[in-house]
């Protein structure tokens, strides 16, 4: 057994996590995870939080007992062609080759950078820690017991949906006017809700305002938000949400 795989066996605490690695990840990914662990970014990958077409998110724990989220993009199974429209045209990523591995690596790097920009702009999103190749270590969003925060779509309890709307629009405004980014896939599926607070996630596809399709992506985000909140009794059209964003810009968000 190669050294990194032997070492990684100690870092994969759960048998189901080991099975996921055997099923999905290639040697390069295993090396990246092992390297991040050896550098002290986390001690164990404890269990799988979520799995999508392009990535898996694990809960990890570090030497102090603090939880981390580790997002690993699939090189072997990624629908990499879907990534192209969000990378090509972004002036921050001009030299990415149109090859599967390069695109996946760029996507991971892009999410890390987008999270950094959001942190500077005080957008409610996970704080990034470090990335290596196709693996990203970031803040774990959940409760003190380590239960991951639910996706907004799955919330069935009654909430003050006007307050939720206010949070979404305020963070949306910070993202656009301060971070200079468009999420490009903002919906109830890409927001978490923890302790009364909205958290934006999945920022890999977020693009610079200079991207040629930024306006198109922005309009799509506005329509998604309008559609979701209309079901919750918050009747706002996409144009009305855009006007709310303009008002927040005028107030110079702190």
Automatic annotation (TrEMBL):
Belongs to the protein kinase superfamily. RIO-type Ser/Thr kinase family. InterPro entries: Kinase-like_dom_sf, Prot_kinase_dom, RIO-type_Ser/Thr_kinase, RIO_dom, RIO_kinase, RIO_kinase_CS. Coiled coil: none annotated. This is non-specific serine/threonine protein kinase. One of its GO terms (molecular function) is metal ion binding. Signal peptide: none annotated. Residues 43-254 form the Protein kinase domain. Keywords: ATP-binding, Kinase, Magnesium, Metal-binding, Nucleotide-binding, Serine/threonine-protein kinase, Transferase. It comes from Candidatus Iainarchaeum sp. It catalyses: L-threonyl-[protein] + ATP = O-phospho-L-threonyl-[protein] + ADP + H(+); L-seryl-[protein] + ATP = O-phospho-L-seryl-[protein] + ADP + H(+). It comes from the Archaea. It is an enzyme of class 2 (transferase). CDD domains: RIO1_like. Pfam families: RIO1 (PF01163). Its EC number is 2.7.11.1.
């Amino acid at each position: 057994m190669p050294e990194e795989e032997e070492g990684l066996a100690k870092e994969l605490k759960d048998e189901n996590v080991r099975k996921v690695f055997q099923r999905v990840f290639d040697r390069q990914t295993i090396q990246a995870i092992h390297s991040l662990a050896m550098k002290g970014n986390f001690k164990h990958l404890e269990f799988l939080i979520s799995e999508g077409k392009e990535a898996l998110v694990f809960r990890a724990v570090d030497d102090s007992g603090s939880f981390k989220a580790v997002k690993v993009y699939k090189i072997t199974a990624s629908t990499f062609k879907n990534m192209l429209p969000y990378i090509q045209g972004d002036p921050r990523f001009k030299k990415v080759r149109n090859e599967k591995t390069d695109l996946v690596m760029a996507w991971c790097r892009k999410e890390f950078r987008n999270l950094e920009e959001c942190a500077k702009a005080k957008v409610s999103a996970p704080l990034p820690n470090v990335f290596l190749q196709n693996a990203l270590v970031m803040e774990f969003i959940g409760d003190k017991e380590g239960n991951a925060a639910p996706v907004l779509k799955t919330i069935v309890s009654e909430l003050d949906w006007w307050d939720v709307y206010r949070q979404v629009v305020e963070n949306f405004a910070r993202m656009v006017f301060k971070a200079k980014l468009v999420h490009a896939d903002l919906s109830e599926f890409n927001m978490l809700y923890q302790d009364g607070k909205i958290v934006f996630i999945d920022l890999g596809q977020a693009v610079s305002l200079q991207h040629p399709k930024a306006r198109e992506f922005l309009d799509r985000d506005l329509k998604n938000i309008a559609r979701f909140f209309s079901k919750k009794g918050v009747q706002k059209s996409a144009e009305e949400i855009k006007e709310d964003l303009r008002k927040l810009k005028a107030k110079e968000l702190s």
